[in-house]
């Protein structure tokens, strides 16, 4: 638990500001548009077979960087958001894997709207604004640590059930699309995923509760946070895949929905309630060219 606590404290310093999009600013995106960007990154990541955690890491970079720009009053035209997003994905791939996405691929995935020079310039800008703090503990890391730590006589039933790990990872992956999940630290997201997975697989609830109690005592989080995240995760999954859980509960075998379908449906989780907000905050300013807009933000 000591390692978990240390990692948790480190992760708090690298979290994007929760609800940073709630305050309307000139040119700022809505939560629905953010979800669209997350879907775009998931598709791009799948295109070159990156690790499934890369979109989550890329969105961490993007949220932190974009929040800094908004806090400084920088107006970022929406035409260039795909550029920033794909640069963040490329940084994640370079930092965490041996994959170095090519400039040709970056141009292709953004439909040749940006030049190679712009990708290099923005990459340096993002790194400098993030002060080179690219090593970010993700919820997946916490979940695996908690899961391994349950390999005790009381928790053996949980660890032996491989579906618990599968469910947890799937639910964590889905949180990448949800803006509201920025309210929770990576550790809390991992705890929420464990609670969801245990409920879906009807495993030893006492072992889960004891583990959660230990984590709360050691790391300074509350069970209320973990339970709230659990509820949010279940609601998010059920909205995206209304028929999925019924089938899975009958078979007790979590079968991951088609990934393309997952990416498409995740972005509509909050689309209806965000539609009016999106209309009110539509960016009406247009730069003389996309390159001019990027050059302005780089300066």
UniProtKB/TrEMBL annotation:
Pfam families membership: Cyclin_N
Region (Disordered): 269-299
InterPro entries, A to Z: Cyclin, Cyclin-like_sf, Cyclin_N
UniProt-listed Gene3D superfamilies: Cyclin-like
Biased composition (Basic and acidic residues): 269-283
Annotated Cyclin N-terminal domain residues: 7-134
PANTHER family: CYCLINS
Protein name, as recorded: Cyclin N-terminal domain-containing protein
Source organism per UniProt: Prymnesium parvum (Toxic golden alga)
Taxonomic classification: Eukaryota, Haptista, Haptophyta, Prymnesiophyceae, Prymnesiales
């Amino acid at each position: 638990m000591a390692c978990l606590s240390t990692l948790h404290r480190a992760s708090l310093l690298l979290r994007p500001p929760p609800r940073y999009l709630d305050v309307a600013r000139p040119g700022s995106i809505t939560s629905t548009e953010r979800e669209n960007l997350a879907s775009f990154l998931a598709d791009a990541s799948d295109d070159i077979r990156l690790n499934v955690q890369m979109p989550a890491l890329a969105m961490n970079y993007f949220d932190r960087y974009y929040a800094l720009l908004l806090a400084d009053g920088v107006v970022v035209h929406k035409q260039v958001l795909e550029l920033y997003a794909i640069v963040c994905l490329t940084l994640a791939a370079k930092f965490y894997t041996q994959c170095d996405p090519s400039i040709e691929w970056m141009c292709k995935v953004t439909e040749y709207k940006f030049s190679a020079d712009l990708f290099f310039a923005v990459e340096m800008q993002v790194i400098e604004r993030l002060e080179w703090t690219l090593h970010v503990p993700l919820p997946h890391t916490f979940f695996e640590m908690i899961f391994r730590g349950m390999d005790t006589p009381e928790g053996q039933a949980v660890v032996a059930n491989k579906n618990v790990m599968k469910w947890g990872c799937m639910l964590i992956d889905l949180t990448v699309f949800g803006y509201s999940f920025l309210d929770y630290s990576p550790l809390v997201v991992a705890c929420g995923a464990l609670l969801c997975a245990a409920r879906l697989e009807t495993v030893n609830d006492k072992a889960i509760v004891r583990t959660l109690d230990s984590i709360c005592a050691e790391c300074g989080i509350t069970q209320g946070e973990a339970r709230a995240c659990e509820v949010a995760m279940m609601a998010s999954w059920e909205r995206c895949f209304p028929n999925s859980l019924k089938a899975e509960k009958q078979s007790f075998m979590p079968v991951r929905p088609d990934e393309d379908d997952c990416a498409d449906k995740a972005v509509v989780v909050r689309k209806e309630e965000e539609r009016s907000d999106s209309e009110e905050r539509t960016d009406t300013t247009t730069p003389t060219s996309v390159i001019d807009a990027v050059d302005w933000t780089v300066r």
